Amino acid sequence: MAVYAIGDVQGCADQLEELLARLDFDAANDRLWFVGDLVNRGPRSLDTLRYVRSLGDAAVVVLGNHDLHLLAIARGNAAWKRTDGGLEQVMSAPDRDTLLDWLQARPLMHHDPRLGTSLLHAGLPPQWSVATARSCAREVEQRLRGERVGELFAHMYGNEPALWRDELDGWDRLRFTINAFTRLRVCSVDDGRMLLGFKGPPETAPQSFQPWFRVPWRKTAGERLVFGHWSALGYVAEGGVLGLDTGCVWGGALTAQQIDAAASQPVQVLNRTGGMALED
Predict the structure, then answer these.
(1) For the chain, which ranges sit under pLDDT 70?
(2) In this structure, is residue 280 part of a structural domain?
(3) What does the alpha-carbon distance between residue 128 and residue 81 come to, in Å, rounded to a whole number?
(4) Is the N-terminal amide bond of 161 cis, ω within 30° of 0?
(5) pLDDT of residue 77
(6) Domain interval for residue 57
(7) For the CA atoms of the chain, what is the radius of gyration?
(8) Do the beta carbons of residue 255 and residue 247 sit within 8 Å?
(9) Is residue 103 part of a domain?
């Protein structure tokens, strides 16, 4: 049995199929960990959702910002964006509700104590320990599985608050948690404030802002964390942190890496179609 983590698919089902063939993936024995953003922008979001759902317990999926946006459009009256064309096939599918129910039941964070590894989409603020992160994730997940989920989708958009405080409550607390798990790239090394509008390479971040995993005082230092979301960062493996978004949908590659074996190397499949214009 092997456990493979896979970067942002974003509807690039062709590359996912090729990648799994290269891994010689066997759903009866192996496991796949997806970092989120299964859908949007790529040409085959519907096929991606159907396939990953069909894997059952062989696949672990955490929610990304594009996955939540799809749910918010379908079940929270969120506005369509110019770049949401890849979601139309999901919205018009005959099995739409089955797929959306499955997606809505996915967690924000997965922790495997046997592997000592946590899976998330974007990042963790430096003030959080793994225990705090898991607790905050559960608060959002309970709302996602509640009867009034439309209220969550109506309140989740926005960049504030950008700074964690233990006493945050209500929609501010839930919005901060969603933003951290699904949108965070850099934060202030001084106080951990998130800069959610930043999308570029780490070397172009404003002074005093660093990738969340390079903040020297973060409470998750030394933890094994797997994430995606940041295509301009690309592949990174440092200090127990593994970043796997290598921009497949933008003409880059879809990346997988075995996480239950020492000294494993990334396996990549290039998007030979050229992808979309880079916006992230």
Answers:
(1) 274-280
(2) no
(3) 32
(4) yes
(5) 86
(6) 3-270
(7) 17
(8) no
(9) yes
- Per-residue pLDDT at 84: 87
Residues in contact with 192: Cβ distance below 8 Å, sequence separation at least 6, in sequence order: 125, 126, 127, 163, 164, 215, 218
**Whole-number pLDDT of residue 277:** 45
At CB < 8 A and 24+ separation, what contacts does 149-154 make? 149/75, 149/76, 149/104, 150/75, 150/76, 150/77, 152/76, 153/68, 153/71, 153/72, 153/75, 153/76, 153/77, 153/78, 154/76, 154/77
Asked whether residue 278 is assigned to any structural domain, the reply reads no
What pLDDT score was predicted for residue 279?
Answer: 43
Q: What is the DSSP string of the chain?
A: --EEEE---TT-HHHHHHHHHHHT--TTT-EEEE-S--SSSSS-HHHHHHHHHHTGGGEEE---HHHHHHHHHHHH-PPPPTT-GGGHHHHT-TTHHHHHHHHHT--S-EEETTTTEEE-SS---TT--HHHHHHHHHHHHHHHTSTTHHHHHHH--S----S--TT--HHHHHHHHHHHHHH--EEETTT--B-TT--S-GGGSPTTEEEGGG-TT-TTTT-EEEE---TTT--EEETTEEE---BGGGTSEEEEEESSSTT---EEEE-TT--PPS--
Please check whether residue 276 lies inside any domain of the structure: no
- pLDDT value of residue 275: 63
Looking at residue 210, what is its pLDDT? 98
pLDDT for position 272? 86
For residue 263, what pLDDT is reported? 82
C-alpha distances (whole Å) from 239 to each of 34, 182, 220, 229 are 21, 21, 11, 19
User: What is the predicted pLDDT for the residue at 276?
Assistant: 60
CATH number of the structural domain spanning residue 149: 3.60.21.10
Task: Tell me phi and psi for residue 268, to 5 degrees.
Answer: -130, 145
Give the chain's domain count.
Answer: 1
